[in-house]
Design a protein that fits this description.
The complex is a heterodimer of chains A (135) and B (189). Chain A is of the alpha+beta class. Chain A is built from 4 helices and 5 strands. In chain B, strand 1 and strand 2 form a beta hairpin. The longest helix of chain B has 18 residues. The termini of chain B are far apart. The chains are: A alpha+beta (135), B alpha+beta (189).
Chain lengths: 135, 189
Amino acid sequence: STEKMPSREAFIEIGRLVCINYGKDSGKLGVILDICDTMTALVDGPNLKRGIYNFRRMAVTGIKLPISKSVKSTTLYKAWEAADLDGQFGKTSWGQKLARQERRKNLTDFERFKVKVLKAKKNKIIKSKLKELKN
Amino acid sequence: MPKQQRAPKWYPTEGPATGLTKTIEKKPQGVAKLRKSITPGTVLILLAGRFKGKRVVFLKQLESGLLLVTGPFKINGVPLRRVNQAYVIATSTKVDIAGIDTTGISDKPDEKTKRHFFSRVVAEQKEEGEGEFVSTEAKKSGLTEERKAMQVKVDESVIAAVEKTPMMKDYLKSRFSLEKGQFPHLMKF
């Protein structure tokens, strides 16, 4: 059949952790609290304003919270802390990539200089080792 | 036109005083306010002039409002120099220069001599010999011994502070430039 199976059990459902990936909230995590219609859902998160977000603007993670629909923000944040969603997401390669991007964006001029120098040093070592192995 | 009816040859450009004009006293402008991000020891990136792109250490704000900076001279060739705040990017990197004595450096003209630390000194010209159009001796630099001595004295302490942080010396040695994909308004300094 032409049906495409999801690579993992990550559906749009109540309690699903999503990462907003478009717009001014891009990079922020939220949990789906309710499905409004075929294109939008009610999403809330500690760094996110509780509101209706389009599915097109979010990416579904593999993490889920066991909450009931349309819980209050305070209840959600308690459950969030209890499950340590930030930590869980941070451990995933996706979360680590986002953290790395954020770190690189916020490098100071001195740090940028150090990165440049150390990267060149590292590449020099790798190149010389590679040359050694080739010979 | 008969002579009596002609306009006079000379007449004042402004009419008689009406007593309705207001003279507003100009307020003294005052010294430029120092940006919060610039404190003694801050590494600054110079954006214009001979040393553009160089990273220098900020020492203090002078009486005229200009910033006193030093390379240090031995590290990147920037001497004790005055720089306008507007042509500078302040980085968040600081060098600990607490206790550095820069009281001898000021750009307030002395009342008697009308000169200050940074006043230009006219280089002495050696007398040209017969038939020579260019003096064989090199022109003496316009630097006074006072400035040279002050440079050495101040840089001693700055360099000592710089060497405490690893890679800081190389950082000050290098010039700042934008690479592909780098946009100043998206960068943190």
